[in-house]
Amino acid sequence: MTTLIDRRSPSRGPSRRNILGMIGATGALMISGLAVINPREAWGLEVVALKPETMRTLIVMARDVYPHDRIADRFYAVAMKPYETDAAKDPALKALVEEGVITLDTLAKARHGVAYADLGWEDQRVAILREIEDSAFFQKVRGGLVVGLYNQEEVWPIFGYEGASAEKGGYIDRGFSDISWL
Amino acid sequence: MAAPFDLNDDSVVVIVGSGAGGGTLGTELALKGVKVVILEAGKRHNMEDFVNNEWESFAQLAWTDMRTTSGSWRVHKNFPNLPAWIVKSVGGSTVHWAGASLRFQEHEFKTRTTYGDLDGANLLDWPITLAELEPYYAKAEDRMGVTRTNGIPGLPGNNNFKVFEAGAKKIGYTEVSTGRMAINSQPRHDRGSCQQIGFCFQGCKSGAKWSTLIAEIPRGEETGNLEVRPESMVLKIEHDNSGKATGVVYVDKDGKTQRQKARIVAVAGNSIESPRLLLNSASSMFPDGLANSSGQVGRNYMRHMTGSVYGIFEKPVHMYRGTTMAGIVRDEAGFNDKRGFVGGYEMETLSLGVPFMAAFLDPGGWGRSFTSAMDGYVNTAGLWIVGEDMPQETNRVTLNTEVKDKNGMPVANVHFDDHPNDIAMRTHAYKQGAAMYDSVGAVRTLPTPPYPSTHNLGTNRMSEKPRDGVVNKHGQTHDIPNLFVSDGSQFTTGGAENPTLTIVALAIRQADFIAGEMSKNAF
């Protein structure tokens, strides 16, 4: 998790009162200055090239695209962080992402009167994503996410996948044929 | 011990590609005392360099140079620049293959005769028979150490196999086993036995799996007659005024253009690169490309009728533990047109890790339907279906003159549409695969679309008559006697079987022919 700022240090973290004041429909994801923060998971992600609100929306969108209730926000944040890094070097990408998020918010406000990330139900947000799923913005985010999320070694144990095995001698003595329920 | 041959040495056999066809042919010729230079586009990796990580390994081994696609196949939509999942590395796709080693069935060499005239299918009988190939199949099986041949025991079944086997037996299949695999079940030919690592597709780190990289090429090099030049991308085959091949132009590892002279040129760059090279070698004498008087170069591209079925169960399977392709059902492999299609198919266990499962389970898919399937990963069993697809003239590798590679050569475009027979067979196979898993308690089954092609066949096919194909029964081009094709692009039709064993058998047979002709001072 080196790509995220650890907010466990008390001097850098937002005050408890501020946190309580900021919690809204987006659950634990909040904006603090130039960062998206998640006090519950004790991390923050500084955003310079993109607007912090844009990154927050991207992280919410990432979970809506690949919702896993056992996977914490920080893994979605790690998967979305490259858009911040790449947007700094690539104005076309930056425009694609910022405009894509504006579209999401415009649709959300027209349907429900609030921004995309503030919609309370996943179904409401997913309905909006279905409207834009053929767009370059959606395809870019989904295409990056399918690798950026599922290729994180830290998420593999959540799926029960054990990863590399050669250095452990393979599975010949570690359960390759241990199935017992058949 | 590599034998460096001079660029101007016109007595060498130049082979383009080092996979199942090229690596075997080069080694076999070297063992017979023939001097060989293999030009391989990819790098040379050792087995300890292989990585047990799907995307990292993909970056290390896969052919990711630009290609384009067209047609109604779903690969075009989801992976427009990755028509095939094959290898750019010394050893070619034998580094990545799963090891299934099956002989063709007798009728699969005679599909035009057996299946008749099928609308839209460009069926043709092979110019060779099973009987002619049998001695070479036997040699290939011995050389590759195929289990259940030559007294070699079968591999033990892993968890994925046990679910597959129980389901197969429950619905009445009888031909189910851990198959014939070129993976050592016991130490043989200086290679150890399978450690059930998994990651067979990522290059076997124990050396139990046969590949030309570890089991053939080093033997050839020991003779002093074989030189392998990695990172050597062949651009063009040259010929003289008599129409005889004289050598090849290639870009070496330093980016310099070189010309290697040759007595014989054999093309073994896989069914996409081999026709691309012949087409890119067009000259004033051969304006449509080399060996293309029939117009068949690049046509009849086959990729096998494929697909996967995954079954999610209530309890853990851990399908990724152990051999990736751990077993086979052969009951549907024969010809039985009562099923509503010609040809047959195999079902073979398959597993993917979490990263590739996410990429390939339902490409482009998202939302809870997708993620709930991913959440069932540890309880999932998987199988792959591989069946005979119909050759069609319009399924085709062509040059895309709009897109050039870094050497300025037009890239290959791969066009593919399923034949109605392919679709009928896939529908049948999805149903049977799901029935197997349902019978042992699957709570959900997932009919998964074909991955980018791993079995690429037919684009320089064998034919008895020059007008019907590109090469004769020895893989020798009809048009140019000292130009050969030595990979799966020779296949007249695809059969239901994984193609590697047949490619190796044909290469051993071709080596006999080439050495024999050379001794008669042909070429």
From TrEMBL, chain A:
Keywords carried by this UniProt record: Membrane, Transmembrane, Transmembrane helix
TM region positions: 20-37
InterPro entries: TAT_signal
Name listed for the protein in its UniProt record: Twin-arginine translocation pathway signal
UniProt organism field: Ancylobacter defluvii
UniProtKB/TrEMBL annotation, chain B:
Pfam families linked to this entry: GMC_oxred_C, GMC_oxred_N
Keywords for the protein's UniProt record, in alphabetical order: FAD, Flavoprotein, Oxidoreductase
Residue span(s) of domain Glucose-methanol-choline oxidoreductase N-terminal: 88-305
Record domain Glucose-methanol-choline oxidoreductase C-terminal: where: 391-507
GO MF entry, a single one: oxidoreductase activity, acting on CH-OH group of donors
PANTHER family: LONG-CHAIN-ALCOHOL OXIDASE
Protein name (Swiss-Prot/TrEMBL): 2-keto-gluconate dehydrogenase
Organism: Ancylobacter defluvii
Lineage of the organism: Bacteria, Pseudomonadati, Pseudomonadota, Alphaproteobacteria, Hyphomicrobiales
